[in-house]
Amino acid sequence: MFERTGWYSPALGRHMEVRVHGWGGARLIVFPTTMGSVHEWADRGMLHAIAEPLGRGWLQVFAVSSADDQSWYARHRHPHERARGQERYERYIVDELVPFTQWRNRNPFCITAGASFGAYHAVTLALRHPHLFHRAIGMSGLYDITRSTGGWQDDLVYRHNPCAFIPNEHDWGRLDALRRLDLILAIGRDDGLRDSNERLSGALWSKGIGNALRVWDGFAHDWPVWQRMLPMYVSGHD
C-alpha cells in the first residue's frame, strides 16, 4: 500500500506527484531512471527488494518523478538552459520535497538513492547539500554531466557536475559535512559509466571524503542487479 500525494511546484511550474511507502524509519528519497515516473520503483520491484525494512518501519520511501524533460534531456535547449532546468529541479527537491518528508516523518536520517540517471540526481543532490542528507546510493550512475552536453560547460553546468566541482572543494564547513556523508557508488565492471564513477571516487578521496566504490561483475546496469544492490547498501556499504 502507498499514499499518493503531490502539489503544484512553484520551482518547476507544474504538478509533481509523490508516492509515500511505509510508515516510519529513515527517510529514503528515490529517483527514477531517465524521464521516469513516480511509480517506476514500485513497478520494477525495487520496493519489493526492501520489503522487510519497509514493513518493519525501518524505512519510509518517498518516490518522486523526474523533470529530465526540462533539464539534461531537453536536447533542443542550450546546455546552459538545461542546467537551469536542473537547478529548478534541485530547488523543488530541497525547498519543497525535503521539508515535506520532514513534516511527515521526524526521523532525522535521510537517504537518497537512484539507478542510472536517477543515481546522478541522488548523488549530486547529496554532494551539493550534505547538510540535508546522510547517505547517498548511486547505482550505475553518470557523474560527469558533460557527457550529456557534448563537453560544453559553463559556471552553471559546473555547479551540477560532481566530477568538476568536487576537485575544487575548499570550504571547510562543506568538507566537514561531506566527510560525514555515507556515499556508495555501485557500477558494473563493463559499464561505460565506470570511468566517471572511478574519477568521482578518486576526487572524493583526494579531499578526504570517504566513499565506497563497488565494482560489480559484468555490465550490471539493469533492474535485476539493482534489486540486489539496494538491500545490500541501503543500511550502509558492505
> How many angstroms separate the termini?
29 Å
What's the rounded overall pLDDT mean?
97
Helical content band? 25-40%
Order of helices and strands: EEEHHHEHEHEHHHEHEH
- Shape summary: globular
In the sheet with the most strands, the strands line up as 1-2-4-3-5-6-7-8
- What fraction of the residues are assigned to beta strands by DSSP? 15-25%
Query: How many strand segments?
Result: 8
Backbone CA Rg: 17 Å
SS field, number of helical segments = 10
Unreliably modeled segments = none
Specify the biggest β-sheet.
Answer: 8 strands, mixed
* Tally of separate domains: 1
Assign the CATH superfamily: Alpha/Beta hydrolase fold, catalytic domain
Top CATH class: Alpha Beta
By CATH, the architecture is named 3-Layer(aba) Sandwich
CATH-defined fold name: Rossmann fold
Structural class: alpha/beta
Write structural notes for this entry.
The protein has 238 residues and is of the alpha/beta class. Helices cover 39% and strands 21% of the residues. The chain has an eight-stranded mixed sheet, with helices on both faces. The model has no long low-confidence stretch (mean pLDDT 97).
